[in-house]
Amino acid sequence: MNSAEDKITNWFARQSKLDNRKFPIGIGDDMAMIGLGSDKSILVTTDMLLEGVHFDLSKATLEQVGYKAMAVSLSDCAAMATKPIGAVAAVALPKRFGQKELKQIHNGINIAAEKYNCPLIGGDITSWKTDAGFAINITMFSSQGNCRPVKRSGAQVEDVICVTGFLGGSDLGKHLEFTPRVFEALEITSMVRVNSMMDLSDGLSSDLPRICTQSKVGALIEEDRLPVSAQAMSKNDPLGAVLNDGEDFELLFTLSKEDSEKLFENWEGDLIITPIGEITSTGIVEMKTACGLIVTLKQKGYDHLGSGNGV
Ligand SMILES: [Mg+2]
């Protein structure tokens, strides 16, 4: 069931024998957590974006790429309901890039930095000797929000599974200008106890099994309840887009029935939150189709290592 990326990530996790007091959260979640003694801690995430994979410079401006680089890491802060502190950026520039291009990238970074109170605090600039692809990496730090950081591994049987926003079709432009759900994650966790959470980066069909694997549970979602984006509706296969398109950067979380009722009664945010199913004890991820059939959900989201590479 697991993607090649999940397999190697699990292998890495098995190789690193981390001291749980120093590193309460290690490999395999949206951020790692470093304990600093006397109940203090800091969290860290890193994300690299590659030209030709995460952006296309014939369709995106450098400002948009700078914004997106920050936004994907901010989305990881949201995934654990933590507060962003600051970020460092590293870039590998094609030979043709100079000061003008760096300032454009910096502008995009700063738009996100100001909105989320997460300044750029350092970085590194390197250049290729050729016009090789542009790459940008952001490493971001955050601190605990209204509760302990919400891990992927806390889902409980009978939890309600929820997603924010509308899913699918991010490749039609949304992936460049999405809103990381930092404020909403902090708001939700100030209202109710969230048992597990992550951000949807690789598509629901790949990301929901990650919560299930780490929590040692299964899930049953309902096709009829999935919030389909306008972009997904415009595609040939809207359901496939909702399940498998990566880069929605919405929140996927689970909470008890009582807490979900409390959340839906009291939620006043503009962002739509949709219950899409329930955590089960089956150990597999299933979907009830529009005509009532229960089918196993195939993991068809984005796999950064592709398939068949023997990992
Ligand atoms: Mg993530």
Secondary structure blueprint with pairings:
Layout: H1 4-15, E1 32-37, E2 40-50, H2 62-79, E3 82-93, H3 99-115, E4 120-127, E5 135-144, E6 160-164, H4 182-191, E7 196-199, H5 204-215, E8 218-222, H6 230-233, H7 238-244, E9 251-255, H8 257-266, E10 273-280, E11 285-288, E12 294-296
Parallel strand pairs: 3-4, 8-11
Antiparallel strand pairs: 1-2, 2-5, 3-5, 6-9, 6-10, 7-9, 8-10, 11-12
Helix pairs in contact: 2-3, 2-4
This protein binds magnesium ion.
CATH class call of the largest domain = Alpha Beta
Structural class: alpha+beta
Give the total of domains. 2
Shape: globular
* Binned strand content: 25-35%
Distance between the first and last residues' Cα:
13 Å
CATH superfamily of the largest domain: PurM-like C-terminal domain
CATH fold-level topology of the largest domain: Phosphoribosyl-aminoimidazole Synthetase, Chain A, domain 2
**Helicity level, as a percent range?**
25-40%
Biggest pleated sheet: 7 strands, mixed
Strand order of the largest sheet: 7-9-6-10-8-11-12
Determine the number of helices (DSSP H or I, runs of at least 4 residues).
8
Order of helices and strands: HEEHEHEEEHEHEHHEHEEE
Low-confidence stretches: 307-311
Please identify, by name, the CATH architecture of the largest domain.
Alpha-Beta Complex
Radius of gyration from CA coordinates: 19 Å
Average pLDDT value?
A: 93
Q: Which small molecules are bound?
A: magnesium ion
Count the beta strands. 12
